[in-house]
Design a protein that fits this description.
This protein is of the alpha+beta class. Helices cover about 25% and strands about 30% of the residues. The protein has eight helices and twelve strands. Strands 1, 2, 3, 4, 5, 6, 7, 8, 9 and 10 form a ten-stranded mixed sheet that branches. Strands 11-12 form a two-stranded antiparallel ribbon. Strand 2, helix 6 and strand 3 form a beta-alpha-beta unit. Keywords: Phosphopantetheine, Phosphoprotein.
Length: about 230
C-alpha cells in the first residue's frame, strides 16, 4: 500500500468489475510460484517493474498451463527496451502484451503508455509512448515554451489528475505545480516532472533521464541530494 501504483491496481480493478488478487510477499520472491499463482487465479492484468520481469521471461516462454494473462504492465522505473529481446524471441507479440507506462505520483499515477513491440528493442532509451486521453503532456524548454520535434525538453503533465500539491511544503508546491497556460480553464495546472524527454517522428515520447539527482530503486524514489545533507 506504500507504492503509488497500488491506487491504480486496487481501484482500477474494483471500479471496473474486476477481481483483485493480492499476492503474498513470499510468493513474489519466487518467479515459479508467482507464475503458478497467476495461472491458478486466472489473472489477466499484471503490474510489475521491468527488473521484476527479467526472471519471469523463461517461465512465460514455457507456458504449458496457458496462463490467462492479457497484459503485463511495466512501470515504476525506466525500461531499457533491449532487456525485452529475450521476451519477444520466446513469446508471441499478441498475448500477453507488454505495456510500458509512465507517470509521476503527482499526476495520479499514469500519464503515458506504449504497447511494446519487437522493433522497440532496437531503442537505446525507454519509449514511454503517448498520453492517456484525459491527460495533457507538454515538452517545454527552460522558459516554459514548447520545443521543436526531436529536441530535448522537460516533460510537464496536466489534467484533472494533477494533485493539489505537497503536504506542508508550500515552496516545493509552488516550484512544481504551475498554472497551465495552454488551456482556457482559469484554474488549470500542470506538474513540472523533472524528467527529460523528446518526441519521435511518430509522436511517441522517449524518456532520457532526470534533470536532478533523483533516482529510482525498485520503483521507489531516492533523492540523493537529501541523503547528502544528512
Amino acid at each position: 500500500m506504500a507504492f503509488d501504483v497500488s491506487v491504480w491496481e486496487i481501484w482500477g480493478a474494483l471500479r471496473n468489475g474486476g477481481r483483485l488478487v493480492i499476492i503474498p510477499l513470499i510468493v513474489t520472491q519466487s518467479p515459479q510460484e508467482l507464475y503458478q499463482l497467476l495461472c491458478e487465479q486466472s489473472v489477466t492484468v499484471l503490474n510489475m517493474t521491468p527488473s521484476a520481469l527479467t526472471p519471469m521471461v523463461e517461465i512465460f516462454a514455457n507456458d504449458e498451463q496457458h496462463c490467462s494473462l492479457r497484459y503485463v504492465i511495466l512501470a515504476g522505473e525506466a525500461l531499457s527496451p533491449r532487456m525485452l529481446e529475450p521476451w519477444f524471441l520466446r513469446q508471441s507479440q499478441s498475448r500477453p502484451q507488454l505495456v510500458n507506462m509512465y507517470g509521476p505520483t503527482e499526476s495520479a499515477i499514469y500519464a503515458t503508455y506504449r504497447i511494446m513491440t519487437q522493433e522497440d528493442c532496437s531503442q537505446n532509451q525507454s519509449t514511454i509512448g503517448v498520453r492517456i486521453p484525459d491527460v495533457r503532456t507538454y515538452v517545454l524548454d527552460s522558459h516554459g515554451q514548447p520545443i521543436p520535434l526531436g529536441a530535448v525538453g522537460e516533460l510537464y503533465v496536466g489534467g484533472a489528475g494533477v494533485a493539489r500539491g505537497y503536504l506542508n511544503r508550500p515552496q516545493l508546491t509552488a516550484e512544481r505545480f504551475l498554472p497551465d497556460p495552454f488551456v482556457k480553464q482559469a484554474e488549470a495546472r500542470m506538474y513540472k516532472t523533472g524528467d527529460l524527454v523528446r518526441y519521435l517522428d511518430n509522436g511517441s515520447l522517449i524518456y532520457l533521464g532526470r534533470n536532478d539527482d533523483q533516482v529510482k530503486i525498485r520503483g521507489f524514489r531516492i533523492e540523493l541530494g537529501e541523503i547528502e545533507t544528512l
